[in-house]
Amino acid sequence: MTRCQVPAAPERVGTFQNMQGKTVRGPDKEPLGHTIDLHKPDYFHGGEYKQHLYMILGRATSLDYCLFDNFPMDEDGFPDWHWFEEGPPDYLVHFLEELERRAATSRAAIETARQRLRIFPPWEHVPESRKLDEGDTEFAYNRETWDEQVSRSGRHSEADPSPPVTSKRILGKRRAEEITSVPSRQTGKDSLRPASDAAAQSASKRRRENEHCDSDGVLKSPLPPPPKATAFSDHLSRAPPPPKQPATTEQGRPPPPRPPKQPSKPLPEGAPLVLPRREVTAGLRNFVRQTLACGIHVREAGGGGDCLFLSIAACLRELCDQQRDASALLEGRAGLSVTALSNLDIAGHLRKLVAQQLHRMEPETFLDLVLTLVFTERTQGARWQEGWSPRQELCHAGLQTLLTANNVVAVSANEYGRPEDLVILYRQGNIDTPWACSDGMTKLTALRGAVADRFAQMGQTHWGTTTDIGLLSEALNIGFVVFSSQMQGQGRWIYGLNLKRTDYPFWVLVYNSGLVHFQVAVLSALEGSAPYRSVYRSEDVPDALAQHFALCSGMPMGQRDQGGVN
After folding, report:
1. Residue 64 vs residue 123, higher pLDDT
2. How far apart (Å, rounded) are the C-alpha atoms in residues 179 and 145?
3. Helix (H) or strand (E) holding 37
4. Contact between 172 and 201 (Cβ < 8 Å)
5. Residue 510's CATH number
6. Could you write out the DSSP letters of every residue in 242-256?
7. Does the first or last residue of the chain, that is N or C, have fewer Cβ atoms within 10 Å of its Cβ?
8. Does a structural domain hold residue 93?
9. For 347-366, what is each residue's pLDDT tens digit?
10. Could you tell me which residues are beta bridge partners of residue 299?
């Protein structure tokens, strides 16, 4: 059978990724557009979508010939033009502003380093660059002109006898010879001449060349031989280095001793939280605007398996900057000195606090947690992201009988066995089954230690979950409001952490995207210049936020039950 088909799309087909840097033109370079699928995936935040959108629009050379499919629509079914009217993504604007701010503070240091190194001329004195040949894609500078501008902008200091750093020492012999052949703005085409090896090796050689050249740069006579010098290796082997003389001041007295090196200082109090800005999902943004009467965005604190703990670290730093008594609370309760540690160190400390809480959990609660992890690992299969196997740890501890259990009902000592024996009552389906576990206390302790070690490791071994957040609430005595990128039931946008107390003196806001990634959540006023807030004292939490938290968690803020994590 022969199949014939007319191609519906004769032009090349590409994705957003492989179209970057390309220009859409016709065969004869005529302006051309393209067909663009503007569908926004659910896992794209607003800034990421705008980045892709603006990039793909810039590939076309004529928007008159563009066809848009899946054009973004608003809630009323009309074209949503705000994607095309808000400019570049917020995180990119923030990044450029941060670069400009750092440039303003580091410009003086860069200029000082430039003058000390004597490698680069000031920007306003950089000589003209030329291509080495017509088909070359690289531009090069004339070596002599470059070194002349360097020496002109920063003369040698009499106190610094070191030779100037020339382009030869940076570029190497072969490349320096090529660059010397490139005409500068001061000379014409006739002045091109190859540079000899000796000329590329020292500035004194170039001076001798200039003395024996005519006005066109051509050698008038052979150069005199250079002065004989001992090889550098011979100099090292034959002549020992001169003894180091003690430094003296102008009055002949030795200089005062240098002060000892101080340890790195912690971040100053009140330092701004500079984290890249990201957008939340449209559903959460609209809910917060309508119900809480404020705006919401997120700040990216980092990833690599530690996103939850890095986000909480950033929140704790902001909390200690704004509330002075928070530092004393964290240091006294959890031994955590936020101002003296980096965010990465704080994240490591938080993981260790979670591991300590695992050792304090009731046996039934701890085994239920492990069984939940075993179930998640089994259902996800190849999609299991963590770098350990709860099932293997349960079997390695000798508790593989629980692999078929739904949950653990009770754990008690075996009255008819040894002191270390246990009776574990677990539920399988609708049936409660008692299991006389020989040496159960030892096995349970080994399992606790293995799981705690996994939870304490930084990186991809264990990804933080709402379970870690609940344990940290108890360890830090701080409450967490965890916004979700997806609705959690009818009209609910906050995760229920299954806590038994909510009487925390402080509350911090975090955001979970797609059950995968945590970020710092930030609330802001819709109008005016009210500051962005990621942390609150309990009495300052907005009423609308507290009410929605009570709806989602089943417990209002400020209530205390028995303590601990359910």
Report:
1. 64
2. 10
3. strand 35-37
4. no
5. 3.90.70.80
6. PPPPPP--TTSSPPP
7. N
8. no
9. 999 999 999 999 999 999 99
10. 277, 520
Look at the block and give the residue holding tokens 């957008």: 279
User: Quick one: which H or E segment has residue 99?
Assistant: helix 90-117
Q: What are phi and psi of 536, to 5 degrees?
A: -145, 150
What domain range includes position 352? 277-565
Mean pLDDT is lowest, of 21-35, 172-186, 532-546, for 172-186
Amino acid, single-letter form, for residue 35? T
Q: How many domains does the chain have?
A: 3
Q: Are residues 130 and 49 in the same domain?
A: no
Q: Cα Rg for the chain, rounded, in angstroms? A: 34
pLDDT at 531: 64
Q: How many CA atoms lie within 13 A of 494 on its CB side?
A: 25
> Which H, E and C letters describe 500-515, residue by residue?
EECCCCEEEEEEEECC
Q: Is 228 inside a domain boundary?
A: no
Whether residue 385 lies inside any domain: the answer is: yes
Average pLDDT, the chain: 76
Q: Is 190 exposed, middle or buried (0-12, 13-18, 19+ CB in 10 A)?
A: exposed
Query: CB neighbours (10 Å) of residue 140?
Result: 19
Give the mean model confidence (pLDDT) for residues 281-299.
91
443 and 537 fall within a common domain = yes
Q: Are residues 57 and 203 in the same domain?
A: no
172-203 pLDDT tens trace: 444 444 444 444 434 343 333 333 344 444 44
301 and 168 share one domain: no
3-state class of 477 per DSSP? Answer: coil
Q: Which of 87-96, 336-345, 442-451, 529-538 has the highest mean pLDDT?
A: 442-451
Q: Is there a single domain that holds both residue 503 and residue 417?
A: yes
**Is residue 74 domain-shared with residue 207, that is, in the same domain?**
no
More confident residue, 401 or 206: 401
* Co-location of 80 and 132 in the same domain: no
Q: What is 193-212 written as a DSSP string?
A: -PPPHHHHH-HHHHHHHHHT
Whether residue 430 is found in the same domain as residue 492: yes
Between the CA atoms of 323, 328, 329 and 334, what dihedral angle is there, to the nearest 10 degrees? 130
Q: Indicate if the pLDDT at residue 397 is higher than 90.
A: yes
pTM above 0.70, yes or no: no
The rounded distance, in Å, linking the Cα atoms of 509 and 298 is 10
Q: Which two tokens stand for residue 512?
A: 């979970």
